[in-house]
Structure formats: C-alpha cells, structure tokens
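Re: [ENG-882] Designed sequences occasionally contain unexpected residues at chain ends

Forwarding the minimal case from QA. Structure tokens:
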C-alpha cells in the first residue's frame, strides 16, 4: 500500500495477495472503503494491545508514557498507517472510526491511577500525541531530509518534546 497509496488499493489486488478470489474479498468487505476502514480499525486495535502490554510491564507511569508514545509513533510510521489515516480523513471516511474514542478510553483505563493526571488531561495529551505522530508519519522523514537532517530528526525531536511534557506533567501531579 505504501508505494501506491490507499487511493490505488484495489479489491482484486487484495484478493490476489491474500490468495483468494475477488468475490471472497468483495463479500467480506463490500467495498474498498470498507476494506480501508477495516485495515485502520485493525491497526488501532493492535496499537491498543501493544500499549496495554506496555502498561502491564512498565515500572511506573513515566516509563509507560514514554514507551507508549514510541509505540504510537512506530504505528504511524509502519505499513502506511499515517497515509491511510490521512486518506480516510481526506475522503470523509474518518468519521466511521469511532473506535478511536474507545481506544483512548481503554488506554486511559490501564494507566497507574496514583501517578498520572486526570483522565481529561490525559485525553488532551493523547490528542496532541496522535496529531504529532500523524504529522511525523506523513512528513517527518521527508522534511527532515529536505532540511539536510537525518530522516529520524523530526521523530527524535517530537519524542524529546513529548518526553519533556510527560516528565513535567508527572512531576506536577505528585507535588502537593
């Protein structure tokens, strides 16, 4: 999908790659738009599963936040996820992704409650993280290279800024 972009994704090609007949893919998804939505839904579910796993293994809220942010950036940079999300938005199909709200709520529910800001503040923070990860996923490597930097420069800087915000928020939430 990355080489061609989501707008060029064809059911017949999906069927060919999956090793099934086109009618099977058409029956299961109904349209290319439904297939794109299903792809994004699955990617969101995988990201939530990864973050829940991180939460269970993290020593503290800071480590959970740092590792979850890296997982978010990884997700938007892999397999054309940022391009698919942008395509769904550009074609008016992103309104179907109500799963995002549920995913954010699920992530917030696994946080260490004694060390983190209130859920509303976390929702705002997640909103910013997703927006930045989407931008880096779409343009980070290209813009970094155009400015003569390494392809990871935008990502590295974004993660540093977010990490600083995480540490600031956590230190203020534990102070009296």
């Amino acid at each position: 999908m990355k080489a061609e972009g989501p707008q060029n994704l064809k059911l017949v090609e999906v069927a060919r790659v999956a090793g099934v007949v086109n009618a099977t893919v058409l029956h299961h998804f109904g349209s290319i738009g439904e297939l794109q939505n299903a792809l994004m839904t699955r990617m969101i579910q995988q990201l939530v599963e990864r973050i829940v796993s991180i939460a269970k293994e993290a020593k503290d809220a800071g480590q959970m936040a740092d590792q979850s942010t890296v997982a978010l950036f990884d997700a938007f940079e892999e397999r054309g996820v940022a391009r698919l999300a942008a395509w769904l938005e550009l074609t008016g199909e992103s309104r179907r992704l109500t799963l995002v709200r549920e995913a954010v709520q699920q992530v917030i529910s696994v946080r260490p409650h004694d060390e983190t800001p209130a859920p509303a503040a976390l929702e705002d923070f997640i909103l910013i993280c997703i927006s930045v990860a989407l931008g880096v996923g779409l343009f980070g490597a290209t813009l970094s290279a155009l400015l003569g930097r390494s392809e990871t420069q935008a990502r590295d800087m974004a993660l540093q800024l977010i990490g600083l915000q995480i540490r600031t928020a956590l230190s203020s939430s534990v102070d009296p």
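QA comment: On inspection the terminal residues look reasonable. Helices lie at 11-18, 22-29, 32-57, 61-77, 81-90, 99-109, 119-146, 153-174. Proposing we downgrade this to a documentation issue.
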